[in-house]
Amino acid sequence: MVLGITVVVVAYLVGAILPGHILARMKGRDISTMGSGNIGALNALRSLGKRAAAVVFVVDVGKASLVMLLVIAIDAPDWSMYAAALATMLGHNFSVYVGFRGGKGAAVMTGVFLILLPYLTLLSVPALILGYLIFRSVLWGMVMTFISINTLTIVTGQSLADIVLCLALTLLVGFTHLLRAFEILWPAIKRLDFHRIGQIE
After folding, report:
1. How far apart are CA 110 and CA 114, in angstroms?
2. How far is CA 123 from CA 1, 128, 150, 170, 176, in A?
3. Rounded Cα distance, 131 and 10, in Å
4. What is the DSSP string of 95-162?
5. What does the pLDDT look like over 78-132, one tens digit per residue?
6. What's the CA gap between 32 and 91, in Å, rounded?
7. Where are the domains of the chain?
8. Backbone phi, then psi, for 100, in 5-degree steps?
9. This prediction's pTM
10. What's the CA gap between 139 and 149, in Å, rounded?
11. Which of 99, 95, 75, 83 is nearest to 18 (CA)?
């Protein structure tokens, strides 16, 4: 039990490390006051450039994968692996280091499932590309990816724990997105303005 709790706490603290915030600070800027204010790869792309965005995405995916690999390596209790995945995303979305602000967690979810469900994660990539090509929106591309991986997790007969974790992380990404952009996102949702929704980060 002590090992499991320790793993979850460490997972939160690792997830709370935000490369977007660090890179912006190195340039004497505050990414939370730039663009959408989100501290993730998409806002880094718009506010700091392609190179910074690539670094942010790779580090965010990598930190989540690293946590999952660590839990497996130390043979922690099974429940702690799923709790650590959730804690990593909570750390990323609500970082204790920057006043409980953060990203939305899409890259973290990717990192988690690259380790837990690598083949299904890779099979979901075409949905991201297709969504972007159809809607010209990264957001809708991610939505289609989330639908894809959740569907694949169910139809391929994955464990109930994996199915629940996938759904929980998806809902957390959606909740964080709605929370951060509620004032402009909710009116677009009520009008079913899909184009406008796709442009709101």
Report:
1. 6
2. 35, 10, 11, 17, 25
3. 35
4. BGGGTSB---SHHHHHHHHHHHSHHHHHHTHHHHHHHHHHHS-HHHHHHHHHHHHHHHHHHTT--HHH
5. 889 999 999 999 999 999 999 898 988 999 999 999 999 999 999 998 888 888 8
6. 16
7. 2-199
8. 60, 30
9. 0.88
10. 15
11. 95
